[in-house]
Design brief:
By secondary structure, the chain is mostly helical. 54% of the residues lie in helices and 7% in strands. The protein contains 14 helices and five strands. The strands form two sheets. A three-stranded parallel sheet has the order 1-2-3. The protein has a two-stranded parallel sheet with strand order 4-5. Helix 3 packs across helix 13 and helix 4 runs parallel beside helix 14. The protein is globular.
């Protein structure tokens, strides 16, 4: 029986990944690379659906790949590459555009939200077709499972619909993937607004824990985290979101259960909780920062690893793209 394949990726849209990325995606990727034929991508083509500084984008792409590895993605075990290094992504996206209706693309809620913020006249066609490129990313690799957050469920449903439609119209070509919604228990919230998930677009920079933050800054952010007027330390995400978020951080950083942490901090104050959480998170992030810096200090070696991953990805993607060309009747080059 063949090992099931998974595909997932993140945009290189900041100098550092944040703790929400680590808890909500990377930890689960690391675990799944042991049970799946894992394909992980830095999706730089998705990043340019909004304006980017070219030099910054290139630097952030390297930094994102370095952090994947530093957190535990093994390039020898998984296929790790940069999206734009495999041109088949763009080519398949165009072909899938031709079997996607304008209506179903218009119904994507993320486009509605983002175009509303930017103003519809400023939203790019690339932003509109973003989910179709995402479908190409997945379908190129015959992925059977796609681990994503709940906010991406609609995009994966579109991917499934496009695969099924293509197969019905042109014959069995694509594997229809299953969506795997990431464990909600791993979600980390904004330190200043603990009712909103931690995000690079958060309202306050003090609410975001970046993986590459200096230890002193990590400590400062955690000690400034919003709690509540009640002094009891217990996990209750509805009534005590701030304290619950700190307990989640402590659980991820120490490996202790929430129940064990509640018992440990029974009768303690918020100041003590924050100090312990800050110390644990700093200790967790220290080797990630060091490994990332080491990788970025030798860009030639990092690029070699990414090139090796791209070669492997290109072989898989090329086989799928060739089958797609044959299916739709594109004339082979002599």
């Amino acid at each position: 029986m063949s090992t099931p394949r998974l595909f997932s990726g993140m945009q290189p849209s900041a100098d550092s990944l944040h703790f929400g990325n680590y808890a909500g995606a990377l930890l689960q990727w690391i675990e799944m690379q042991n049970t799946h034929d894992a394909v992980f991508c830095v999706v730089d083509l998705h990043a340019i659906t909004v304006p980017q500084d070219p030099k910054t984008l290139a630097a952030q792409t390297r930094k994102t790949a370095a952090q994947y590895i530093a957190c535990g993605i093994d390039p020898e075990k998984s296929t790790l590459f940069v999206q734009s290094h495999v041109p088949a992504h763009s080519e398949l996206a165009w072909i899938l555009n031709t079997v996607t209706s304008f209506g179903e693309a218009s119904r994507m809620t993320q486009f509605k939200d983002k175009s509303h913020k930017q103003g519809s006249d400023n939203a790019t066609v690339g932003l509109f077709t973003y989910p179709i490129l995402q479908a190409a990313d997945i379908l190129l690799y015959d992925a059977t499972v796609v681990p994503v957050g709940e906010d991406q469920r609609q995009h994966i449903e579109l991917t499934r619909n496009l695969a099924e439609r293509f197969n019905q119209r042109f014959g069995e070509t694509f594997v229809v993937p299953e969506v795997k919604i990431m464990d909600a228990a791993a979600k980390i919230y904004d330190l200043q607004n603990p009712e909103a998930k931690m995000s690079k677009s958060g309202d306050s920079p003090q609410g975001i824990l970046w993986l590459l933050d200096e230890p002193s800054l990590v400590t400062k952010k955690i000690k400034s985290a919003v709690t509540d007027t009640d002094t009891e330390i217990r996990f209750d995400s509805e009534r005590k979101p701030g304290v619950s978020n700190l307990l989640s951080l402590a659980s991820l950083a120490t490996g202790k259960t929430l129940k064990a942490l509640e018992e440990e901090f029974q009768g303690a104050g918020y100041g003590n909780l924050k100090s312990v959480v800050a110390e644990a998170v700093v200790e967790l992030l220290a080797p990630i920062r060091t490994r990332t810096q080491d990788l970025l200090g030798d860009p030639a070696e990092l690029d070699r690893m990414l090139a090796k991953g791209a070669e492997k990805a290109e072989r898989m993607a090329g086989a799928t793209l060739s089958a797609v060309h044959d299916a739709v009747g594109l004339l082979p080059r002599a």
